[in-house]
Amino acid sequence: MSDKAPTDIKFHQKSQKLEVVFDDISYQLSAEYLRVFSPSAEVRGHGGGPLKLVTEKKQVKIVNLTPVGHYAIQITFDDGHDSGLYTWQTFRELGDNFESNWAEYEARLAKEGGSRDVKALYKKVE
């Protein structure tokens, strides 16, 4: 797996997608996808165990992108999450494995009763 730097990175604010362009391929990764597959210890764990199931992030937004050296970006989301560094290799892995990652994520949501949508804090009384 290559850790070569992207040739371009563009943030599309309206669609909340981060476009990461390498010499041979480009990816458009949604804020939700980047958030639920964050490389942080909060999501990935400290010991390499299973990923924590992050729910209710369908509407999450990227509020800041901070370059870290010549090897990564720190992403700040509007839910306050800002830990974990998205290295060039991380972007490659997330892009290359999008379909299988997303299918597994949706299966876990269904199995564990999670939701992509924020749950209402109140119930409508009729």
TrEMBL record:
GO molecular function term, any single one: metal ion binding
Domain Gamma-butyrobetaine hydroxylase-like N-terminal: 9-91
Entry keywords, A to Z: Iron, Metal-binding
Keyword Iron: yes
Source species, domain of life: Bacteria
This protein's name: DUF971 family protein
Gene source species: Pleionea mediterranea
